[in-house]
Amino acid sequence: MNRSEKAAIIEAIKAKADQAAFAVLTDFKGMTVEELTKLRVNLRNAGGEYHVVKNTLGRIALTGGAHDAIKDNLRENSGVALGFEDPVAVAKMLNDFARQSKLFKIRCASLEGKMMTAEQVDTLARLPGREQLLAQLLGTMNALPTNFVSLCANLVRGLLYALKGIEEQKSKAAA
């Protein structure tokens, strides 16, 4: 590989990493091509990408970028998972894959430039996803007007019961 090819690879990695909000360094030593292909497909469905990188080229590409914090952990067989949309979905997918595969391990991650350990990635994976959080927010926002309408209806209902009781008392007294 000559210098121009290396420079092109570095630029491609740097461009992808700078677009990503979430980057995870993984160890895939001993995995088969079929397993890596399955990982890539699952990660693409979760809104991410998976790249196997040479350590030196990866270090150069990540230096000074959004995920500079993880560059020093590039050693041995390294793969970089990049999450572009929902970091929680990517973390869940990687966590599930790591549980299924004995050879795949999460080393560390960078969420918007902040270093995360493998345990913190596991914690992130246990959080509800974007869609679930939006549904909870919508439910909370919908509950406020619903409760307000119920409260107003209860006030009017109480007044109507009181008036009905007065009417019945007067009709009994008149009879």
Question: What features would you describe in this structure?
Answer:
This protein is of the alpha+beta class. Helix 1 crosses helix 3 (55-62) and helix 4 (87-100) crosses helix 5. 60% of the residues lie in helices and 16% in strands. The chain contains six helices and five strands; from the N terminus they run αβαβαβαββαα. A hairpin with a 2-residue loop joins strand 4 and strand 5.
In the CATH hierarchy, the third-tier topology of the largest domain is known as Alpha-Beta Plaits
CATH architectural designation of the largest domain: 2-Layer Sandwich
The gross shape turns out to be rod-shaped
Structural class: alpha+beta
- What characterizes the major β-sheet? 5 strands, antiparallel
Radius of gyration: 28 Å
Number of strand elements: 5
- Beta-strand percentage range: 15-25%
**Overall pLDDT confidence:** 85
Task: Give the N-to-C terminal Cα separation.
Answer: 108 Å
Instruction: Give the oligomeric state.
Output: single chain
Number of domains: 2
Order of strands across the main sheet: 2-3-1-4-5
Element order: H for helix, E for strand: HEHEHEHEEHH
Flag low-confidence runs: none
Specify the helix fraction band. 55-70%
The CATH superfamily of the largest domain turns out to be Ribosomal protein L10, N-terminal RNA-binding domain
Q: CATH class of the largest domain, please?
A: Alpha Beta
**What is the helix tally?**
6
